Structures are given as C-alpha cells and as structure tokens.
Task: structure prediction
Amino acid sequence: MNLRPLPLLCASLLLAAATMPAQAPATPAAPPAAAPPAGSPAAPGADAPRRAPAGPYVQPAPVAPGDLTKWPRGVSPAEVGKALSEHFVTGTQGARFSGYPYVCTFYGAMTFAALTHDDALRDRLITLFNPMLPGGTGRQPQRHHVDDSIFGVMPLEIAIQTKGLPNYDPKYLQLGQSWADRQWAPPTPDVTYPEAVVPLDNLQGLSPETRFWVDDMYMLNMLQLQAYRATGDRKYLDRDAHEMVAYLDRLQQPNGLFFHAPDVKYYWGRGDGWFAAGMAEMLRTLPANHPDRPRILAGYKLMMAGLLKYQGADGMWRELIDHPEAWPESSSTAMFAFAMITGVKHGWLDADAYAPAARRAWIGVVGYVDQNKDVTQICTGTGKMDNMQYYLDRPRETGNLHGQAPVIWAAVALLRDEK
Result:
C-alpha cells in the first residue's frame, strides 16, 4: 500500500485545527432537572422532543399552464401592480396631466389601490388630481372629442371610491357626470367635434363625438360606464351599449379582429387592444338581461377566439396582429391579457383554452418592465393611415403611459375575485 500521502493529510488536518477559533472552556454540566409531573407543561428551557426523521424529498408540483394564481418571483400581479402604480404617483409620469393615457393610468392605479385596500395610495392619487378641479392650477382638456372627454373617468372613480367615507365630496361626482352628459348633449352651432363622422342632424342615439375609430371603444365606453357605476342611472349604460353595438357592426371582421377604421383595413395591435379592454369592462357591468348584451358578448368571444391564433410563442402579440414578422408590442399584449383574464374569471371563456394564453401573456409582458418600473416596447401614439409600412415602422417607446396603464389593468384583473 502506498502511504506517502498520509503525512500530507496529517499536515492538512493540523493546519485546519490551527486556524479554527479557540473554543471557550467547557462549563460544568448542570445536574439533571427533576421530571415534571405527568400532564404538566415542560419547564422553560427543556429540550424539545425529538422530531421524527424527515421523509424523502418531494419535488413541488409544477404550476399548471393555466394557473392564474401562482407566479415566479418578480412576476406576481401584486408586486408588479404596486410598483407601476407607485412609479406613476411618485415619479414624473403623474406630475403633469398628459391626456387620455394619463387618465387610463390613473384609473388603473386607483382600482389597484381599491382592490389591495391601499388607502394611502388612493389618497395620494386624489391629491394628484385635485389641481385639475375647476379653479385649480392644473388644466382640463377642452375639445368635444373622445380622447378629451375621457377625463371625466378620474373624478368619477374618486366619487365611487370615496362614497360613504368622511372625505367624500360631491364635487367629484358633479364634475365627472358633467363630462358624461356633455358627451351626449345635442349639438349646437358653436361646438366643433373633431374627426366626428356621424351626421349631427341624424345621430340615431349615438354620441356627436362618434368617429368609428377602434380606439374609441375604450375612451368613450369608459366615461359612460363610470357615470353609470357612480350614479346607477340606466341612461348611461344604454347609451354605451348602443354605441358599442354600432362600432361592432362597423369595424369587426369575420376573423374576430377589428380594422383601425372603416377606411384603414389593418389590425393594429393597440387599437384592437382598446376594443378588447372596453368590451371586457362593459361585460363586467352590463346586466345579464340587457338587450344589447348578447351582441356584445358574441363580438367579445369572436375576438378572443381570433386572438388565440395570433399569440406568439413568447406570449406576446405583434404591432400588426396578423403579421408574425412585426415586433412584439407590450401595450396590446397587456390589454389582451386583461380581456382574457376577465373572461376566464367570469366564465365567459373556456378556462382550458384561454387561461394558459392569459398566463403566457402576463409573464411575457412583465418581461418588458425594466429596472426603473418602465414598460418598454410600447408603440408610440398612432393615428390612422392606410399604409401597412406606417404601422410596421411605428417607433417604440419606454415608459409611455399607453403601456404603463394596461399592465396595471392586467394586474388588477388577476387580483380581482370575479366569482
């Protein structure tokens, strides 16, 4: 036997012993304590009973593809929703009103605050809005246009959340309701409606602001929905449902997707996202017996089925939905995720088919939230144009509220208990 390595081993052991910290001298052992009487609790400091040996390691079961409750670290809706809401209320995004994307982000953060019982966040958002009240230092939009009228969603959400609280103030409801009523007011010669296309002398129950762009079915839809939610007045809901049916008839195609406008026959991602989110919000509120509900639900289901065919392996949808070569776009993906999550939770959609798609979409879009809590890969603001390359070449932005807002909506949808 070769024993030459033995001295080396012994030297190593000695070196290790030499480098170990010196131990304190042992103290004399205490005499054993008397056993406590039967049935009495163990004396303080007594040794805990020996545990049974642990069983064999069992690997946790993998998360089901359609699970909407368990998430990898950094992807949970509570974590992401909180981070983006705080980023809005404390950073530069919320410091200056910037139009309808601001309204949509404010609404998302307010609903997140309500759902998570974060009263401090809610109150800071209200403080952020207050300069925009009449007579304040902030500004309100002025045009009779869907992109401006959605402003009324903010005071209506404040009215809804503060109703019955000590800090309730009727001025929020009055302001929001005035915007909703103005949107359906009879036209007068002194008012201009930019981009409106419905004859003002034959509106047939539609808003004078109607222009039949796919975006409108979130902008216009949410203002009337919020007015109904705040007041319970059925006229707001009936107006809204009638308008949505008109848009469905005009813009939805047999494949379930929507043209940007009747004269612009492209499936622009965020444009379709606005309509998807608007229908999901409408169906959350529209009573089961409302005469327009079957038509809206049918249009919603047709769209969701169409979207399934175009979701990428990365969970994302593209800038032009039906063009796989187009770049993955975050705002549309978040909107489609919101619509699918809401449908699965309400039972409008088959969970086996749509919950896995919704999960992939959420994980995919959260991957585009950077270290600053800014959503990346957001299509810039986009007007309609009858040119495919125009859509494919749209610039990509980071931190644009067009994308921040729907990621918060999707987080809210995941946290919301719809049953």
In short: The two ends are 76 Å apart (CA to CA). The chain has one domain: 77-185+203-415.
